[in-house]
Design goal:
Blueprint: E1 2-10, H1 15-20, H2 23-30, E2 35-42, E3 49-56, H3 59-66, H4 72-77, E4 78-87
Antiparallel strand pairs: 1-3, 1-4, 2-3
């Protein structure tokens, strides 16, 4: 499993527009082959920050979805990107205790 996590920094005044313009990207990603989860969300305390969280079944599935990457227009809106891919080597799902809490 591949985990993609981190954050982007955009102009605070444009963050809501930036996120709204990516709704179709999120919808497409969530139905893409090999996608387990895909989310972009506004940070609760930093008005410039957009949080990124994704899960994919494989690196190939992620690369197939990414294709050639973001457009020049998308890249122009991002001031900084701190997003990384991680290959999960441990259990895929956390174990739960009998009472339903994380063990």
């Amino acid at each position: 499993m591949i985990i993609v996590t981190g954050h982007l920094l955009v102009d605070p005044e444009r963050r809501d527009d930036y996120l709204a313009a990516r709704a179709s990207e999120v919808e497409a990603a969530r139905t893409a082959p090999g996608a387990l989860d895909y989310a972009l969300s506004p940070d609760l305390v930093d008005p410039a920050r957009v949080n990124v969280a994704q899960r994919w079944v494989s690196q190939q599935a992620l690369e197939d979805f990414r294709g050639e990457g973001p457009s020049e227009e998308d890249e122009a809106e991002v001031r900084e990107a701190h997003v990384h891919d991680y290959a999960l080597t441990g259990p895929e799902e956390p174990s739960l205790s009998p009472d339903g809490d994380l063990a």
